[in-house]
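Two folds, back to back.
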Amino acid sequence: MSNVELITGNLGDHLLKEIEKASTCILSSFVMQSGVAFLKDPLKAAANRRGAGNKVCTGDSCSLPNPKL
């Protein structure tokens, strides 16, 4: 968790790569419905590969606009 990185573009691609490497948990300050839909299948695949569930810790979008991933 000491590896801090500023991501300024291609967030969706970055998240998909991190899901491949992650052990169990994703932490986000907020999510939007489109983001959950985007990550749903990759998270299921990751859980199936590891034989365990994933933990996603987050809040809701607080009515923020929905940017493209």
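---
second:
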Amino acid sequence: MKRSPLLVACLAASLVLSGCARTIGKTIDDQFTPSKVSARIAETSPDLKTNSHIIVASYNGVVLLAGQTPTAELKSKAEEAARSVAGVKKLYNELQVMAPSSVSGLARMNDSTITSKLRTQMFADGNIPTSRIKVVTENGVVFLLGLVSRQEAALATNVVQQTSGVQKIVKLFEYTN
């Protein structure tokens, strides 16, 4: 039986890429995981819901908690709640123990501006796989999540380093190489 070279090339490419790409199931899970984690956190303690500002992001089962909560105890409760959600394979609790930033404050508006600017600059670069990188900015700290090669991570980090308003960069990437 003779195999078409095109078929062999396509099969080889799909095998190589399958190690680098997320499954459709993981992509769907990542859309619902933040709301599940947020709901679990809110159920755990009324103080977490009313006295904290918690951002939840997820990429490929890796979950980030960022924001502010007034006590170390509440930070721990948020982490426990997040870990109890099915599908969370790794958790980064980057909550700061401090009074939450104001909802209408300039800090949150600045964070949104930084995130938008970074997404645009990464997209314009052309060598950065923006579909595999999630950018979250909280209080001037930029968190980078995604499934990328070390070179792609370096390119993305370089863009962030050159952007004004960024206070710190936290890389939470999963590397494909």
